[in-house]
Amino acid sequence: MNQEVRFRLKHVIIFLSVIGFLFFYSLSSNRDCEGEQSSRSNVDGAESWEAGQGRDAFLPNRKGPTIYAVTPTYSRPVQKAELTRLSHVIRLMPNVFWVIVEDAAQTSSLVTNLLRRSGLQERSVQLFAKTPTNFKLKGKDPNWLKPRGVEQRNEALKWIRNRLKHNALGDDGTEQSHSIVYFMDDDNTYSTELFEEISKIERGKVGVWPVGLVGGLMVEKPVLNRDGLVLGFNSAWKPERPFPLDMAGFAISADLLLENPQAQFSYEVERGYQESEILRHLTIAHDMQPLANQCKDVLVWHTRTETPKLDAEKSLQKSGKKSNDGMEV
């Protein structure tokens, strides 16, 4: 009997010893895992934080004023490619309303199809305004010889003013919502951050910022004084202009356009004076609102697409054929 008790006691002791060993082993393993996980999380956490910061820079601005982005365009081999690039930027910015104005006698299926495929039909309008024949470039004329986009931008301004007036008529006495107008040419490159900056433009103000790769310089930019006021511009090309800046370098609070119906573009001004022609009715340099980190950040670049060499296509067309037969390129 005693032997049997001792035998059972021996097994109990062995069993408890095994359990105790496994328990202490699991505690030790957990400490090692926690230490390794903690070390890894410090690295991964930093990486994920940095990645998160990068993603945040591209999150769409779902609040703020409506930005009317005015894009004059005309039929040419790179038209669809350039409008497609712009559409991808605009899709990321829900407060941007795209005003496309074609230099044509009627709207084209190419632009209609592009708006449909990009999902921008609900926040865009497709207009047309044909440039008078005597102001059209001919043959091998350089693109600077005659003013471009005058008719189209003025048509857009007319449409925007009518839309704003119509919205105001339906107002219930509350303050009309803030909106901004930006001339967004289709041959430039735009950062989404630019539209975040444009959204900061206050009522009654014209916002300004640097533009890269323009006017023979790496950057054209407003020059500010110590108080952050615009003193002038660092333009190297025709610096005597009242506003020597690029079309991509400013945007206008829409209330200024309603208050100054005479503000528009003109065929009567010399080359390089279109920006000055509209801005002279709206503001002075000192009253402009500097943006983009006090005009230290470049968020738009003047990057014209190279004209494609289509000699083989021209030869093909002479034989009554074309490579894009039945296709929209």
UniProtKB/TrEMBL annotation:
Keyword Cell inner membrane set for record: no
Protein name as catalogued: Galactosylgalactosylxylosylprotein 3-beta-glucuronosyltransferase
Biological source species: Anopheles christyi
Ranges that cross the membrane: 12-28
Family: Belongs to the glycosyltransferase 43 family.
Pfam families: Glyco_transf_43
One Gene Ontology term from the biological process aspect of the record: chondroitin sulfate proteoglycan biosynthetic process
KW Magnesium (keyword) present: no
Binding site for UDP-alpha-D-glucuronate: 72-74, 103, 148, 153, 185-187, 302-304
Topology versus the membrane: Single-pass type II membrane protein
GO molecular function: galactosylgalactosylxylosylprotein 3-beta-glucuronosyltransferase activity; metal ion binding
Sites annotated Interaction with galactose moiety of substrate glycoprotein: 220
